[in-house]
Amino acid sequence: MNAQDQPMVRIRSVRKRFGSLEVLKGIDLDVPAGEVVCVVGPSGSGKSTLLRCVNRLESIDSGRIWVNGELMGYAERDGRLHTLRPHELSRQRRGIGMVFQRFHLFPHRTAIENVMEGPVTVLRTSTAQARRQAQELLDRVGLADRGHHYPAQLSGGQQQRVAIARSLAMRPSLMLFDEPTSALDPELVQEVLAVMRDLAATGMTMMVVTHEMNFAREVGDQLVFMDDGVIVERGDPREVLAAPRHERLRAFLGQVQ
Ligand code: ADP
Ligand code: MG
Questions:
Q1: What is the pLDDT of residues 165-220, one digit of tens each?
Q2: Under a CB-based contact definition with an 8 Å cutoff, are residues 35 and 221 in contact?
Q3: Does residue 93 surpass a pLDDT of 60?
Q4: What 3 state SS string does 194-222 have?
Q5: ipTM of the complex model
Q6: Could you name the domain of life of the organism this protein comes from (predicted)?
């Protein structure tokens, strides 16, 4: 397989348990570079855990996950797998942005300082350069004139857009979104989805856990329906949503749409 055919994310036979509860029961999934995979499913089906396994906020019990051709969390040397050291794992994680339901901005820093933080402290970018890039990113998420506001002075939708800009400042090759609009008032949802739509149009590879079926239909290249730790149905979002094959997916769609 050459580099071009290699998916950005490759998940094989992944299992994960918390104590006696098996949360992921053998997940296989490819996310080709430049594509958007939307993951939907009922609460507790394992969607967040799956995303957290991709960037190794959680370890996995069995299976393999590769991101950008690298096995997450391990290095192969002398034909054996070695657990990565913390600094090596940090380097891997740096290439993966994650946006959560809650925005997790630094409350005592302005919007632009939040966006500059990673490049300055982790990438050792100069302050002047980081500020220029941060301003460009704030422009991109529609917040050019909000750089000097503190999180508490911004709406939830604006804070989430700052959080997206902050992730992008690390120049990730993959973005993970875990219900990025679920904590927002309904009138603020679209402004965040619009930023995500623009990001997808630039060719960013994205895994998006969401209940926004219109977003999945219009932006998603693939729709994955999870239930009880397994992928029950997957395919082109337009086809899957127009004609769901499994009763569990039909029941789920009846609740969210
Ligand atoms: P979803 O995001 O689809 O709602 P999650 O991945 O958050 O589902 O959770 C799947 C299951 O795993 C749930 O039953 C949840 O309670 C459980 N779970 C998630 N994280 C932990 C944890 N750190 N410790 C124990 N159980 C967990
Ligand atoms: Mg979740």
A1: 999 999 999 999 999 999 999 999 999 999 999 999 999 999 999 999 999 999 99
A2: yes
A3: yes
A4: HHHHHHHHCCCEEEEECCCHHHHHHHCCE
A5: 0.98
A6: Bacteria
* CB 7, CB 29: distance < 8 Å: no
Q: Is the CB of residue 46 below 6 angstroms from any atom belonging to ligand 1?
A: yes
45 lines ligand 1 (CB under 6 A): yes
- Whose C-alpha lies nearest to ligand 1, atom 21? 18
- Cα(212) to centroid(ligand 1), Å: 21
Residue 50 Cα: closest atom of ligand 1? 6
Compute, in angstroms, the gap from residue 179 CA to the centroid of ligand 2: 7
pLDDT at 1: 46
Question: pTM of the prediction?
Answer: 0.96
Q: How far apart are CA 46 and CA 51, in angstroms?
A: 9
